[in-house]
Amino acid sequence: xxxxxxxxxxxxxxxxxxxxxxxxxxxxxxxxxxxxxxxxxxxxxxxxxxxxxxxxxxxxxxxxxxxxxxxxxxxxxxxxxxxxxxxxxxxxxxxxxxxxxxxxxxxxxxxxxxxxxxxxxxxxxxxxxxxxxxxxxxxxxxxxxxx
Length: 147
Known about the structure:
Number of strands: 9
Largest sheet: 6 strands, mixed
Strand content: 35-45%
Number of helices: 1
CATH architecture: Sandwich
CATH topology: Immunoglobulin-like
CATH superfamily: Immunoglobulins
Order of helices and strands: HEEEEEEEEE
Distance between the termini: 68 Å
Number of domains: 1
Shape: elongated
């Protein structure tokens, strides 16, 4: 039994050593780099910076953003921003700009629905690559959305 475990371990090491995508996953990986400002007023734009890694470099499909304000949520799908080239073992940043808005849809942060009271919003974001792989979902800290 011990010999079988050693052989499996050696075979596992060979596959790892021969891998062409060292540290780069087939399914895109994203992480939150930053979100600014954490208090958003009328006329301002929320900037969300994501880091990404992908073995095939085919992340050019779309971005999904869910804005959760506690009592309601808004879903936004849109094409990947910018002109991202397709290349193997790719990593970089995706910068999303979400302007203050007046409701759901579009690329806007929804304005508060309660008169003269701020809302708090949390954003959940994932990306989809050209092969249909869905990344992990990142969650932002709460953003205060002023009326």
